[in-house]
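Side project, low priority. Logging it here so it doesn't get lost.
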Amino acid sequence: MVSREHKRAALYEKLQLLRSITNSHALNKTSIIVDASKYIEELKQKVERLNQDIANAQTTSSSSDQTSLPVSCPGLLVSVLEAFEDLGLDVLEARVSCADSFRLQAVGGENEEEGESIDAHAVKQAVAVAIKNWSENTENE
């Protein structure tokens, strides 16, 4: 008897957890499971779109006319961060690697001017200009 009550309580807890994770407002078991199924399908679609975006970005970056950068890139990070600042982006954290090529991963905060968003293409262009300017400046030195 205790075992049956324990199983029922455990199932109820799991259904409530599933309900909260999937933002379901359903009250019965079947509706909660249906909402969870829909939620999983939405997540699958998001993953597929992100994978496509990543594949497109990799194709675009490999086919674009990028200049090969030396392994040692003194001043390049500063140039890129200045480009972010010019766009009004607030960089909270940046990771840089110069092992095989220059790689930058930056995490930003919200724009100071609310409601204004910056297009990813504009950021990419600003970074490309910063790299080009840095490259030209290092060649002249």
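Brief comment: The CA atoms of residues 36 and 42 lie 10 Å apart.
Revisit when time allows.
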